Amino acid sequence: HTKVNLPIQARMGNLSIYNSLKYSYMDEQHDYIKEETYNDNSYFYGTEMSREHHHTISEAINLSYKISPQQTLGTIFSIDYIDSSPMSNIYSNRPYSGYSSIGHIKNTHLQGAISYKYDISPEESYLNTTIDYLYSDINKIYTHQYSLNDNTLDYSESNFAKNISIKGETEYDKIISRTHEINIGMQGYYINAYKKSVYIDQNYVADFYLKGCQGSAYMVYNADFYSFLLSAGLRIQYDRVFHSSGDKSYYRNNFLRFCPNVTLKYLFGKNNASSIEASITKDGGEIPFTMLSPLPKQVDAYSYSVGNKYLKPWKGYDANLSLSLRDELFIT
Q: Closest Cα to residue 159, out of 210, 211, 104?
């Protein structure tokens, strides 16, 4: 395993620059002993060898500019290129029985982000905005050969994927007074993804196209009433998903959820060193876009994984009651 890192850091007035160029090479080999019992109760014993050559090139540059004592502008750009050649072989003590696989993987990832922060007051009130862009291009080509007794199956597997995603968030935090604080924010997410799988010699071609977006707004109010601490908030989230498959099937759905949360904490005892806290939260997770693709993906020599394109956001409630006595005894 070899790594080379060339970092450069400089500061010119209000501008700070950090650049990092990295190269990594890995040659890794694993050897295993495998025992398998098939459906016909036949017994298989053999050894497995897997080896991978892995090249990674990464370039990242980070710029930070102090516009004024209260305002800061930052940007980040990075590119990653991966070239990998995995190989796997299984050798059996039974003639004409085994498995071999040779692959070639090329991945390219581009990411850019820009952020702006405005410190409104010395009391730490602030406004913060961030936008993040991500592009990825993934190409995987495998050649497989299965042998069992006198039967041999050869086929090639190709997987292509392109993804574009954009994330944005704006957060405003206001210190109203020593005992009152309010936090307001908005979040947005957009994804455009395409995947294609081709299995030569098995006459299988499939593709999956996905578009999705998410938007949410939230507000949290925090108050300190001496021995009582209160935190109450509400998050409103909207999700939209659309996808189509090579079989001409289409799916479209929208989700709107309201997720409140309340936490109450009471301090007591000497120096308020003990406390009792109760909270309840209604949560609604995001649509798991990475788990929607129904195209089969090989995990190892024995298994594949597929997604479920009809997955919906998960829902849940979380209730908590805890007691702390002088930071020595905790009951939850």
A: 104
Q: Which residues of 203-234 are buried (b: 16+ CB within 10 A; e: fewer)?
A: eeebbbbbbbbbebebebebeeeeeebebebe
Distance CA 21, CA 6 (A): 5
Quick check: helix, strand or coil at residue 208? strand
- Dump pLDDT digits (tens) for 240-279: 888 887 666 788 889 888 999 999 999 998 888 889 999 9
Angle CA 297–302–306, to nearest 5:
25
Contact 323, 330 (CB under 8 A): yes
Closest Cα to residue 55, out of 125, 118, 1? Answer: 1
The dihedral through the CA atoms of 239, 240, 244, 248 has a sign that is positive
Cα torsion angle, 243, 249, 252, 253, sign: negative
Residue with tokens 């982000």: 113
The answer to whether 178 touches 124, Cβ cutoff 8 Å, is no
Q: For the whole model, what pTM was predicted?
A: 0.74
Radius of gyration of the CA atoms of the chain, in A = 27
Q: How confident is the model at residue 183 (pLDDT cuts 50, 70, 90)?
A: very high
Q: What is the pLDDT of residues 8-47, one digit of tens each?
A: 999 998 999 999 999 999 888 888 776 767 677 666 667 7
Q: What is the pLDDT of residue 289?
A: 77
Kindly state the helix (H) or strand (E) to which residue 17 belongs, with its residue range.
strand 15-37
